[in-house]
Amino acid sequence: MNDKAGRLRIGSGAGWWGDRIDPARWNAERGALDFLCFETMAEATVSAAQVRKRRDPAFAGYDTWLDDRMRAVLPHCKANGTRIISNQGWINPQGAARRVAELCAEAGWPGARVAAVTAIDLSAEIAASELRIMETGAPVSAVRDTLISAEPYAGAAAIVQALDQGADIVITGRVADPSLFLAPMMHHYGWREDDWTRLGQGSGIGHLLECGAQVTGGYFGDPGYKDVPEPWNLAFPYADVDADGTAEIGKVEGTGGCIDLRTVKEQMFYEVHNPARYITPDVVVDFTTARLEQAARDRVRVSGISGHARTPTLKVSIGCTEGHIGEDMFFFAGPGCLEKARLAETILRERLRAAGLQAEDLRIDFIGVNAVHGAASAALRAEPAEVAVRIAARCASRAQAEKIGREVDGMAVCGLASTGKRVPHQDRTREVIGLWSTLVPRERVACRVEFV
Q: Would you say the pTM of this structure is higher than 0.90?
């Protein structure tokens, strides 16, 4: 596929669930890709999907934008011989794979080989265990009554297996972000699972690609300081990868944004606690040895990233139900708006006390005044032109959380002059999903590959 002999070209198709779709289509259509990889899962995605499935049995359990993303890229991937790897399977990789097979048939690609990669759910196994929660040190058994999911972070191995067996499209559940991009490198170049140097370099490249536009100028622009050309037209990146893992990061022609040493450095250290020990399921990556070079306009050469032996344990994300949040907002504008907001806060606190609100936490913010800096904003005495009053409470039950919206509704005609109220929407409460972590021995995590 790639017109650069001896190189593998891997492109990004998404950096999160809500990401834009056009840049994925541009990569599929014009990127001359060998592989297109979609990363659509945040830390809480699995738990949120489990809660939605429990509330709505009709929910399919996979990425709600699956159809839109696949319809945008499948015709181009078929025409250009591009294979797809995606973690859009969420809690139902088999169902997502079956749906992708249907979409392939619609797109004139009925012979596409679609595989699902599923990690075994560990919920039942660890619910009563004495494994320790990393954030608190308490045993996992302490949350067993509220535990709804326990999903291990799988690595690249099962994806490589599916590719070795001829998969055109691989749909996974919870797989570590860099592993989605490392897998095609291991498959294409035959890298061993203990080749720590190449796996470290490959995982580092995967980390640069997995957040999509963040390496092409997204989440980067700062007017007058870090200007980005045509920020409305950002592309997703691709990487031309050599057999030793050295790569050049680039983007398709005719798109906005930029790829330079600044954007690559920012993404390299994004969500990295220790640059010398970035732990993935496949390898421990060391970014401190990386070498970056501006190879051409919008092309950065990345080499020298190191790797060390993988850990004997794998991370498991544990989702627990932790009550409900009630939230609403109303507005004031013009002279005296801040004083009205302050009096409105007093009114609400008194009315919620009278209503018997039972809340573990109650917060009232004035958006534009103190919502970010809190008490440190007290020095900002200038009267704003407008202010939004946001109120939120975390409660044990939905019934308690619903009291927030009810009392805010009352501000419409039982409040102050010139109160601007949103039209009440159907549900101003949401279930809270607590996210905790534990480590399990690697041998207790198993994945299976299933062709649909």
A: yes
